[in-house]
Amino acid sequence: MAINDASVVEQLAAEAVRLGARELGVEYKDGYEQVFVLSGPIGYEVRRFKTSTPVAVSLRQELRRLCKKKRRVALPSGEFELRASVYDSFGEDAFRVKLRLLAAPAKARRGRLSSKGAAS
Known about the structure:
The chain is of the alpha+beta class. The protein has helices at about 10-20, 55-70, 105-120; strands spanning about 25-30, 30-40, 40-50, 70-75, 80-90, 90-105. The longest helix is centred in the middle third of the chain and has 15 residues, at about 55-70.
């Protein structure tokens, strides 16, 4: 995953939403930052970053900032609020990021309104 205009967390959030998840998790294991998506009680790994890489360092920094202050992001599937929390996992910091939909994309909202109007 290359770092571009979108932050690492935003890119991962977009992937999670695309997969139908509303929560991300990041945990350290065996020299890697493991990123997984959660949908209800089921989760699976979507990315692994070697802990010493710039992407992994950037990811952890973003997650620490996100724990202090929630953030709104515009993704292709709508506007989301990202809230992170940190917890201990075998002596290492682990993170959970909740993805809350604030507003669906304008195109989707218009489509729903016009289909309701057509049925009346």
